[in-house]
Structure formats: structure tokens, C-alpha cells
Amino acid sequence: MSIVIEVSGVSKSFTIPSVRRDTVREHALDFFRPRANERLRVLDSVSFELRRGESLGLMGRNGSGKSTLLKIVSGIYPADAGRVDVRAAVTPILELGVGWNPDLDAIDNIELLGTVMGLTLKELRAASREILEFAELEKFAHLELRHYSSGMAARLAYAVAFRAVREVLILDEIFAVGDAGFKERCQARYREMHRAGHSLLLVSHEPRTIAAFCDRALLLESGRIVLAGPADAVADRYLALLTEEPPTTAHPMAL
């Protein structure tokens, strides 16, 4: 199978202050002192490939660098070192709610988010009913999103993403949203896309999800890939890793 995404030796660090300033007095006293910073390495020489038609899982404890890696692959963050070669159109769903306008209703937001994902207004208007049905939000089509619960907004975001998917879909914890019925529809749609030849990169903390829906998987720990192989083997290793002490270098930015 041809390669649609190739990540070679990617590293990423962030500069964070080593001393906190919480009060006005602390800010005033330290105004003329240079603020001490430290470099936090989040990813360290990460390399992997996503092949055409493959479902690849990504696992790792909080602080392992998963979200940072996805943002680099999606073009949101630049890498400090290494190379990311994307050879197909990518639809990333990383942070639910990004791109929504709370003052607009569901129909308008479908058009807003869908055009960002590459669909035309004509395509979106033809698919609006299907998207709302998938998200079980037909009754709330003309309700402003500010009145939606987080679960309702999440269902709508995934429904738009599944309709707008291009060659590659990147999903973060897709099966952790909604009730049992919505999860079942998501699983069925995921399998449908897999059979249709889409390339899928799925991040999940749920070992059963990775084992059931992925061909291969990667295990990320402290910014490095420590295991790459069959999805069930990686899921088992992740479970074993959860019983170990977490690394002391973990930081919320690396989630």
C-alpha cells in the first residue's frame, strides 16, 4: 500500500516559565528581572507511516505527546526538527467546538464548519438533513449553538466530519461521545469508511476500541514511540503501562 502520511524524526519542544508569578506583588518585584524559562521536550524523534486504506491507532498516557503529534501532522504546529510529508487531503477532528459560532443555529454552523473542511455550500445544503439525523438533532436545527449541551455540539461536530471526510481522517477519542446509539452509528460509519479505502488515524485511551477498529497501532510514551505493531499487542502493552509510575516530565501541554 502507498504511504499517505510519512513522519520522520519529528521533535517538538515548548518554552515554559520555571517560576510562576501569581500575584500583582510578584509581577511588580520581578518586572525588571529576566524571567527564567525551561524547554520542555514533548516529542523526541518520532517516526511512523500511515498507509492508504489503513486504520492506525495511537495510544499513550496523558502527557505522552499524542495531541501535539496530531497537531503537527495536521499542520497546526510546526515541528522543531524532522519532516512531515502529507500526500493526501486530511480532515482532522481534534478539539470539538473549534470553528463553531455560538450565535448561529445548527444549519448555519454545519455550513460554516463544512466549508472549512472542504465541502461546498451546495453539498452541505444537500447533506444537512442527513447530518442532523446522524447527530439526532433534527428538532434543534434552528436553535443557536449557545443553547446546546457539550454532548449535542460534539455529536454535531462528528456528524459533519463524517460527511466531509476526504482521503485521510484524524479522530481524537471518537467513540467517547454520546449515548450507546450514537456510538454504534459512529462505529458503523468508521467501518464503512475503512472498507471504502479511507486512511484513518484514531487516538483513543480505550484498548478495546484500538484492538477492534485498527489494523496497527503505536504506543507513545514520554514523547517517543516505544512500540509499533498489531493493534491488540499495543493495546495490551498500554494496559500494562497504566500500572507503572507516570514519567515526571509530563506536562499538560503534552496531552
Secondary-structure topology with pairs:
Elements: E1 3-17, H1 24-29, E2 37-51, E3 55-60, H2 66-73, E4 81-86, E5 90-93, H3 106-116, H4 121-135, H5 150-164, E6 168-172, H6 180-195, E7 199-203, H7 207-213, E8 216-221, E9 224-230, H8 231-242
Parallel strand pairs: 3-7, 3-8, 5-6, 6-7
Antiparallel strand pairs: 1-2, 1-4, 8-9
What does this 3D model show about the protein?
The protein is α/β, with parallel strands linked by helices and 255 residues long. It has helices spanning 24-29, 66-73, 106-116, 121-135, 150-164, 180-195, 207-213, 231-242, and strands at 3-17, 37-51, 55-60, 81-86, 90-93, 168-172, 199-203, 216-221, 224-230. The strands form two sheets. It has a six-stranded mixed β-sheet with strand order 5-6-7-3-8-9, sandwiched between helices. Helix 6 links the parallel strand 6 (168-172) and strand 7 (199-203).
Residue stretches low in confidence (pLDDT < 50, at least 5 long) are: 249-255
Rg (CA only) = 20 Å
Q: How large a portion of the residues is in β-strands, by DSSP E?
A: 25-35%
Q: How far is the first residue's CA from the last residue's CA? A: 31 Å
Residue share in helices? 25-40%
What characteristic shape results from the CA principal axes?
A: globular
Strand order of the largest sheet: 5-6-7-3-8-9
The major beta sheet can be summarized as: 6 strands, mixed
Order of helices and strands, N to C? EHEEHEEHHHEHEHEEH
Q: What structural class do helix, strand and pairing data support?
A: alpha/beta
Number of DSSP strand runs: 9
Mean pLDDT: 86
Q: Total helix count?
A: 8
